[in-house]
Write a structure and sequence with these properties.
The chain is of the alpha/beta class. The chain has helices at about 5-15, 30-50, 50-65, 190-195, 195-200, 225-235, 270-285, 315-325, 330-335, 390-400, 425, 450-465, and strands at about 70, 80-85, 90-95, 105-110, 115-130, 130-140, 150-160, 165-170, 180, 210, 245-250, 255-260, 265-270, 295-300, 340-345, 345-350, 370-375, 405-410, 430-435, 440, 450. The strands form four sheets. Strands 1-2-3-14-4-15-19-17-18 form a nine-stranded mixed β-sheet, with helices on both faces. Strands 8-7-11-5-6-10-9 form a seven-stranded antiparallel β-sheet, covered by helices on one side. Strands 12-13-21 form a three-stranded antiparallel β-sheet. α10 links the parallel β17 (about 370-375) and β18 (about 405-410). α2 crosses α12 (about 450-465) and α7 crosses α12 (about 450-465). The structure holds manganese (II) ion (2 copies).
């Protein structure tokens, strides 16, 4: 082929085809350095925000330090004012009043702060064969075998009958005891190993070992259980009946750590969706005097379908926007119709070890930046809001104009399974929504993996969305 012909093809290729680009290779040392620096804060967040309650209190502290105050419906606010609304300690809204207020809609960034885990049952404590154990009911979609034989920590609250709230936080520090779900040794697992995974590990196998010493040597029955209860009484002033009024959960005890010789990734529990919640929180803190009012929502219950007062099927966000609208002499419905939203949630990163679960042309990849997911759902686009071409064009232009590293992705191959995000609940309020977030390896495992660059680019995407004119 002549040189002339070759260069004509190259020029046409440049003009017409999507470049299979090299993700992180496009970034310079400084940008990568900024990503590494940003992720130091993210690792701190991860270690202090394993549950939604912890994420809310951590975020309120960070927001207050940045000048946010608790929202007061009876006060009037000026552009640039920063307020927050704490919904039952389990969901949080951070709002920066825009120069136009709500007149031309609001900009929403929404991430969830609940993650899969093992919740204690309301009557969890029992003794069997001189061992004390907790019964659990898993929360969210998990592969049950992954939760056996790994150190667990107990987090949550116990509310005594008189209303006293006792915070429980034990097992993360190496000086503290941890807990564990036992598993059967391979020597005796011949039968278990031949069963399908769903049968080999069922929900009632997820019992947590919490003690083995009797209260004393007398022959009183259940003295191991009694001994554990006595320790809990000494520490938290609780009795067995108080488990009934508790939100207690077993979470992986491991801390977030760098992954890889090059330290390019972070392994941790709960990336889904703290890895979008933290960038959204930081974008809310960093955005100054936006044109439209900006609302960041850190929501609860996403992993179990968004039902309940603190989930996105609740009216709490719309109620808040209605209050802001009223203050501007507007109606909620007129505000929503002009509003735009980035539903900040993770997508599955392409995993070469399980390549057959993915469709390579439409997967997101580690180190290729924030991933835009036009639609989620399953089985023929069922149960998704599917962002419109017009809105996709707007977001695409914004990210390109601000040099954010981004990619598109779909969750696995068609009919391979599927999943949803909160996007559709916001779209159902008559707003434009698309999912944007971080690709994750081993999603929903006790130790998930993300790339530092992707975390930072997701922050940049959210910030630029908030700050856009
Ligand atoms: Mn998620
Ligand atoms: Mn999830």
């Amino acid at each position: 082929m002549s040189e002339e012909k070759k260069s004509a093809a190259a020029a046409l290729k440049e003009k017409l085809l999507v470049k299979k680009e090299s993700g992180v290779r496009k970034l310079d040392e400084q940008e990568i350095g900024r990503a590494d620096e940003f992720c130091k804060g993210y690792v701190r967040f991860l270690d202090h925000a394993k549950t939604e309650r912890e994420a809310v209190s951590y975020s309120i502290q960070a927001a207050e330090a940045a000048g946010f105050t608790a929202y007061d419906r009876t006060r009037s606010y000026q552009p640039g004012d920063k307020v927050y609304v704490n919904n039952r300690g389990k969901a949080l809204m951070l709002c920066v009043i825009g120069q136009e207020g709500t007149k031309n809609g609001v900009r929403l960034g929404i991430a969830h702060i609940d993650s899969p885990r093992l919740d204690l049952k309301p009557n969890p404590l029992y003794e069997s064969s001189d061992l004390a154990l907790f019964k659990t009911h898993y929360y969210g979609g998990i592969k049950k075998y992954q939760w056996t034989a790994v150190p667990l920590a107990l987090h949550g609250v116990v509310v005594l009958k008189d209303g006293t709230v006792k915070d429980v936080y034990i097992g993360d520090d190496e000086s503290e005891p941890c807990f564990v779900v036992t598993d059967l040794l391979p020597h005796l697992a011949d039968e278990q190993m031949t069963q399908p995974m769903r049968k080999a590990f069922n929900g009632e196998h997820l019992n947590v070992l919490i003690g083995s010493r009797p209260f004393n040597t007398d022959e009183e029955s259940e003295s191991v259980k009694l001994n554990v209860m006595n320790l809990l009484f000494e520490k938290y002033g609780m009795t067995e009946a108080d488990f009934m009024s508790a939100d207690l959960t077993m979470v992986p005890a491991a801390r977030a750590r760098d992954v890889g010789f090059d330290r390019s990734m972070i392994g941790a529990y709960g990336h889904d969706d703290k890895v979008c919640a933290y960038p959204a929180l930081m974008a809310a803190i960093d955005v100054k005097a936006p044109v439209q009012t900006v609302i960041t929502v850190l929501t609860d219950r996403e992993e179990i379908g968004s039902d309940g007062s603190t989930g996105m099927k609740s009216t709490y966000m719309a109620d808040f926007i209605a209050d802001l609208a009223q203050a501007d002499g507007m109606e909620l419905r007129h505000v929503m119709a002009k509003s735009t939203c980035l539903s900040a949630d993770v997508n599955a990163a392409f995993d070469p070890t399980y390549a057959s679960a993915f469709e390579a042309n439409n997967s997101s990849y580690i180190n290729c930046g924030a991933v835009i997911t036009k639609y989620t759902g399953s089985g023929g686009k069922y149960s998704t809001s599917d962002a419109s071409a017009e809105y996709m064009a707007k977001i695409r232009k914004l990210l390109d104009d601000t040099n954010v590293l981004w990619q598109t992705g779909e969750l696995g191959k068609v009919d391979g399974g599927g999943g949803g995000t909160i996007a559709k609940f916001v779209a159902n309020l008559n707003a434009d929504v698309v999912d944007l977030g971080v690709p994750v390896l081993s999603m929903h495992a006790p130790f998930e993996v993300v790339s530092k660059v992707d975390v930072y680019e997701t922050y940049r995407a959210l910030y630029e969305f908030y700050a856009a004119k």
